[in-house]
Design a protein that fits this description.
By secondary structure, the chain is α+β, with helices and mostly antiparallel strands. It contains three helices and eight strands, in the order βαββββαββαβ. The radius of gyration is 19 Å and the shape is globular.
Length: 154
Amino acid sequence: MSGEETVQHNGATGGQDGPRTMVELDRDESLALLASVPYGRVVFTQNALPAIRPVNHLVDNGRVVIRTRLSAKLGQAAQEATVVAYQADQLDPQQRTGWSVVVTGFARTLTDPAEVARLSAALRPWADMTMDTVVVIEPQLVTGYRLVAPDGDR
C-alpha cells in the first residue's frame, strides 16, 4: 500500500443529509413496537460473559416470550430466573430512520402446562430443532428510541 488509508463504506450513506433526532419512547409504545416485529436478540450471561442469540418472539400480556431447548445455555439460565436483555429494532439504513427497543428483566422457564401449550402453539420456532422450553421475560426496564428525520427531509 502507498500509505493511504482506504475507507470502506457500509452502504448506509443514502437518504437525506440532515441529522436525525432521537426521540425517547414510553413503555407502552416500546412494547407495541416490539410486538410488531417477529424477531430480536436475547442477551444473557454465558461463562461470565455476555452472549447474544437471535430468536423469534411474541409479546404476551407485556411479557416477551421465546422458545429454546432446556439443554441450551439460555434454557439453563432461565431455570435460575436470571436477568437478561432483549433487543429488537426496525431500521431503514437508506433513510437513517427507525426505532430500537430494549427490555431488561428476569427470564424464567414457564411451567404451567396450559400456558406452555397456548404459547407453544402461538410461537413456532424458526430453527430446525426441538424447542422444548418456553421462556418468558418479565420486563423491569423498557427503553425505546425512535430515530426521526427532520420535517423537511421526508
